[in-house]
Amino acid sequence: MEPILKTINLTKTYDNHAAVNKINMSIGKGEIYGFLGPNGAGKTTAIRMMLGLVKPTSGEVEIFGEKISKNSFKAFERIGAIIETPGSYKNLTAYENLDIHRRLMGISAKSSIEETLDMVGLLEVRNRRVGKFSLGMKQRLGLARALLHQPDFLILDEPTNGLDPQGIKDIRHLLLDLVKQRDITILVSSHILSEIEQLATKIGIIHQGQLLEEMDMEQLRQKNRHYLDITVSNDQQAAFILQENLSIVDYTITELGKIRIYERMNEPMIINRTLVENGVDVAELVLNKGNLEQYFLQLTGGNAVV
Amino acid sequence: MTTILYTELLKCKRASILWIIAAVIVIPSLISFFIGFGSWAILDSPPKWSGFLVFSQSLINMLIGPPVFAMLASFLFAREYQEGTVHSFFLYPRHRALFFLGKLCILLLLITAIIGITFLISLGIGFMFTTTHLPYDLFIGKVWELLKIIGLQFLLAPIAILAGVLSRQIIAGIIVGIVGVTSSVILMIASTPLQYSVYNPYSFVTFIIDSPLESSLMIRGFGTLMTLSIVCTAISYYHYVSSDVQGSGV
Ligand SMILES: Nc1ncnc2c1ncn2[C@@H]1O[C@H](COP(=O)(O)OP(=O)(O)OP(=O)(O)O)[C@@H](O)[C@H]1O
Ligand SMILES: [Mg+2]
């Protein structure tokens, strides 16, 4: 199937420094793509290029199969976006801000404004001036603007910036609902893995302008399961004992004399005793809590803001 | 295009710039009022029509107009950058050239409205205080001057637009306007010969109303103003339409 978004060697160079370096990514229909990277990794720059706001130094972007430039109006009608902290006209109310958006998007139904305000939880303050809004409320208004015209593709650059934990949760549910109900596709960037971990179906990790890794969330979880590494005198015999005496079936023999198990990891003493009692010497027992955050830190050289 | 014009006006609703516009209308009107009032109170005679109409017009044209219209211009063109709305603004399915054109139209509309309303108020105050009919010739002459002022002030605006678009800051246009007026006042105080000072567009717009210039100076001055205006508009347009968009929000 044709991907919703595709970048081909997308590159942006600022005075000999590549902010985005030959990125090739692709997002399929219905996916929630988590675009993950520490501060300054190039997320915003990449997203600006995807929307024709910044001209790539080289490479290109295709959305809905169309090459994107600043005049890709057909695509713009089907895209909703938040980039960095979205601004609004502070002298106007939330309602008036969305009304301007509605008119310029060419949407005739006025009811769409209140519906969208309701969706993001701003209906009650619709007639308050945005200048008096809190950061989180401004962020929600930005999201409302991105949603009002019922886009097929949402591009959200750090949408949870400035939101409290409840707000982050609200938005997560809102996005998940949208995907379910309207079958939309989402690209969401973040520098905090835990924020998009429960949302994304696919993750791309960007660091210093390069796309280091791209994988399904399921794959990533597998890769980062907790496990217990046991070094034993006889791996075959140990495996047999684990299976027979402790009913552990989820394990692999990683190398000679080493077994990695993914079950009953919080009972290392029982495992140890059982093996020893059955004549297998245990030289070492190491619990690995390889969580995703750590994995992310590892990839990005540990300077991520977590 | 009507949508663009309408939303552009809507965006000015409750903006603080409106207070400044109001002040620009009120101050010359107040002065007109005091001219009429003072004439009766002190001289005990009806004021002359010409006094009313000349004063508020030249005040706007020479002193108040350039900096305020510069502020308006750079407000219109730089606000999206400064307010962080530029991303969503340039993601509408409309050509950026239309936004540029729309803002120019709104600027012309506002300049016309400010100058026109001030004139009408002066006229009204005139009817209050004078006892004579408004001479037809004077009226027509003043309306003609009014149109010239509107045109000239509009031609001055691109200098401020350019400053606003390049710096992406509203303040830049304001500074340009203030510097412009200051320079014209300095040239005037230093009684610089006309053949040099016409090169300063901010001086030129004041000469053209008060005392008719001889045609060679006229060509020189108008040519300078026109060239500057067109060049600034062209650079602004190019920059506005095709440069990378990176305004930060909040
Ligand atoms: N206009 C510009 N001129 C020069 N360098 C720039 C420009 N815009 C971005 N950069 C550089 O490009 C790099 C990537 O910036 P970008 O804003 O895309 O990062 P980011 O991943 O969005 O970071 P954050 O998490 O802080 O938002 C940074 O090193 C930044 O300094
Ligand atoms: Mg960013």
From TrEMBL, chain A:
Top-level division of the source organism's lineage: Bacteria
InterPro entries: AAA+_ATPase, ABC_transporter-like_ATP-bd, ABC_transporter-like_CS, P-loop_NTPase
Keywords linked to the UniProt accession: ATP-binding, Nucleotide-binding, Transport
Record GO terms (molecular function): ATP binding
CDD domains named among the record's database cross-references: ABC_BcrA_bacitracin_resist (cd03268)
Entries under Pfam families matching the protein: ABC_tran
Domain ABC transporter: 5-233
Claim: Hydrolase is one of the keywords in the record: no
Similarity comment text for this entry: Belongs to the ABC transporter superfamily.
PANTHER family: ABC TRANSPORTER, ATP-BINDING PROTEIN
Name of protein: ABC transporter ATP-binding protein
Annotated organism of origin: Paenibacillus arenosi
UniProtKB/TrEMBL annotation, chain B:
The name this protein goes by in its record: ABC transporter permease
Membrane-spanning residues: 17-43, 49-77, 98-129, 149-167, 174-197, 217-238
Top-rank lineage group of the source organism: Bacteria
Keyword set includes Metal-binding: no
Keywords, in A-Z order: Membrane, Transmembrane, Transmembrane helix
Keyword Nucleotide-binding: no
Species whose genome carries this gene: Paenibacillus arenosi
Pfam families cross-referenced by the UniProt entry: ABC2_membrane_4 (PF12730)
